[in-house]
């Protein structure tokens, strides 16, 4: 029952984050420990305002906060966004293939890259869940895997944007693909930064406890 509730809570938070990425967070007490914690963590990202806006909704509904939890949440939102982008590009690619459009190959390449990114993000989420469950000796192994997969997903998104940008396809279609994939790249970038912050703190804490 508890697991079901947490899954439902995450779904609601993800939808709110997806629906209103630019929503103001003034309703959140700026003096609260949760808000201060999130703002401090998000300063390590390339898109701190996006990070704060999304994670502040999470802070209002979750009772426990940690760098690992914030990295997990941002990773899951990144995966949701990647799947939305993937679904849109699948639709565009099918229409272009049917019309035998010259731009089809560029969109197909983008779809391949986004699909690979979805796989990389999915693996990263599973790997992050394994951290601390298999002993400290395996931490570096899991850490390296997550960093590699997130970096690959970020490269996939960037490559897709670059490939589509160089094609003379319809302005609206191009703009939609770029906007959706750029959003994936921004959240993936933030997820990588938050994960690196968690990993650095984890390793520093382990070093201080050694005799």
Task: Offer a concise description of the structure.
It is found in: Secreted, Extracellular space, Apoplast. The protein has 211 residues and is mostly helical.
CATH arch. level architecture of the largest domain? Up-down Bundle
Order of helices and strands: HHHHHHH
Largest sheet: none
Span between termini: 41 Å
> Taking Cα atoms only, what radius of gyration do you get, to the nearest Å?
19 Å
Strand share of the residues?
A: under 5%
- What general form does the structure show? elongated
User: Which structural category do the helix and sheet elements fall into?
Assistant: mainly alpha
Number of strands: 0
CATH class of the largest domain: Mainly Alpha
Helix content: over 70%
CATH fold title of the largest domain: Butyryl-CoA Dehydrogenase, subunit A, domain 3
Poorly predicted ranges (pLDDT <50, ≥5 residues)? 1-9, 20-27
**What's the CATH H-level superfamily name of the largest domain?**
Invertase/pectin methylesterase inhibitor family protein
Average pLDDT across residues?
82
Number of helices: 7
Number of domains: 2
Explain the overall architecture.
The protein has 2 domains: 2-61, no CATH class; 67-200, Up-down Bundle (Butyryl-CoA Dehydrogenase, subunit A, domain 3). The chain is an all-alpha fold and 211 residues long. The longest helix is centred in the C-terminal third of the chain and has 39 residues, at 171-209. It has 7 helices and no strands. The chain is elongated, with a radius of gyration of 19 Å. 79% of the residues lie in helices and 0% in strands. It has helices at 2-19, 33-42, 48-61, 67-98, 104-130, 139-165, 171-209. This is Pectinesterase inhibitor domain-containing protein. Residues 33-194 form the Pectinesterase inhibitor domain. It is found in: Secreted, Extracellular space, Apoplast. InterPro entries: Invertase/methylesterase_inhib, Pectinesterase_inhib_dom, PME_Inhibitor.
